[in-house]
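Batch queue: ligand-bound targets. Current item pairs a single chain with zinc ion. No template structures supplied; prediction is de novo from sequence plus SMILES. Inputs echoed for audit trail.
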Amino acid sequence: MATFYLTTPIYYVNDRPHLGHAYTTIVADAMTRYRRLAGDEVRMLTGTDEHGEKIAQAAAKAGMTPQAMADQNSAAFRETWRALGIQYDDYIRTTEDRHKTVVRAMLQKLWDTGEIYLGTYGGHYCFGCERFYTEKEIVDGKCPDHLRPLEWIEEQNYFFKMSKYQAWLVDYIEHHPDFIRPERYRNEVLGFLRDPLQDLSISRPKTRVEWGIELPFDDKYVTYVWFDALLNYVSALGGPGDERFEKFWPHVQHVTGKDILKPHAIYWPCMLKAAELPLYQHLNVHGYWTLGGHKISKSIGNLVEALALKEKYSNDAFRYFVLREMSFGLDADFSEEGLVGRLNADLANDLGNLVSRATTLIVNCAGGTVPPPHESAAVFAALRGVPSLAQVFEKTRTDVARAMDAFAFHRALAAIWEFVGAVNRYVDSTQPWALAKEPERRAQLDTVLYSLAESLRLLGVALAPFLPDSALKIRQALGQTGDPKLSDATWGGLKAGTPVQKLSGLFPRIDDKKTAPAAAATTKPVGEDPPRITVADFGTIELRVAEVLAAEPVPKSKKLLKLTVDLGTEQRTVVAGIAEHYAPADLDGKKVVIVANLEPAKLMGVESNGMVLAGSADGTLAVLTVDRDLPPGAKVR
Ligand SMILES: [Zn+2]
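Prediction returned. Tokens below.
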């Protein structure tokens, strides 16, 4: 049995929860549910970050004490996680004594070992961010985040000797390629580290900031909020020496948004190294949710009423949308139309209809109990020309495991939906309603119905980390009780005679006429036949198979997607006008066909080196893919 410890960042209590917080926490919840399903011993931590000047300011404005404000907003986060069905194991608050004790012990240790010194610091300070900015980071004399002028501040402070760990950290990241992932963030961190790393000011004079943890070796100062906050991952386990720490810390992974990459990827490893504690296994970094192309940020406002959509469309639909729509690591856009589109297509049509059809057939044609499979399901499937569902599920299981190892939630769900698609096609091909009319084909009918029931049972297990409520309903309809286990998800485990109940309306279809824009494109009539070309003419066009490594929206464009593709020998950027027809996450991992020798062109400021082939008719657009596996770069003719 493996051990797994996963943390979200602790959320800052100067504001209320928003979609960005919800996504991070849902991701952590889905991952820990998956690992628990797989039989691991799992611990998930979340909580709130409660010190610092911004809290003191916000509290003063609201006419409350900082502690009262922290209590109120920490409770709001906890309430949100309850409403979203998040199963965390521990919730830490940085104003708790258990946290303060560990922070003070750590500071004392670093002071005693000469890792901290008193110095003078002068710099451009943003009161919004509570941090100094380097010359390089300042945009027109303003904070790049708040777009407000910075103030020059000079003061005596304590510093952590972070600069001495620069060479070590670069070396560590280079030798541990998945320490920070996805790779784009690893590269970003290595980019930061090409500039000299400064020592980190870890104190604030009480004359300026009072709301914090007092330094154990100088009571005129409180601890800088990041140095305090990062230590929550350790303090929640009781700190070094505690049984929980010894057990879980060696297996820790963090999930975080890209806005707080630097503290997690640079300060934190250096702090751990200086304290002689093991580093985390992986830092898993996700991108931003945008709303109509704009970043959703607590500091700038523009919060989405995401939780209202959860009430409107169900918790599972909301979870599914955010996990499926965002390629983990890249930005994605949030919209009600997008959510309704996924809900209708993937959840209502593909999954909901399948569950309803299959359970109805079993109740109507087999008296509501699972019939025994009379002939080998695989042999039967082969006769009917459909793939064996047992084999398709085995592949799905492997693909999901691989995707979850890489924190690729969108790929895990795509893999499960491949199975859903295969089962739907199986129903269409085997036509159980027709078999039911021919008594001499009872054995075949039983085999088909058994396969459908078994497929639903497996879905009830595989979907549990992602759609916990619906997966439970599916398992219950199939007479399954107790906690699901991934080890039970093997074909043939379902016993004949198990009672089955009809389950319809798992995800009711939403009338999307009001939310979805009508498809505008129509096929233009062809006026003239295009001229004939020779084989030699055609030979001048270089067509190749390209694997999509990443797809992301082009800012300010409704139509364009920027694709990073692998051509076997090289990677390229190709801009494609398909954003109205494909969500970025749908293209991830797809093998498409591109014109590889097209002149480069700039589209909305992005240079495109090639063209993706797609067909369209009556407002539907489909990207060309290859129907057998070919390596990236394979020639097409
Ligand atoms: Zn700022």
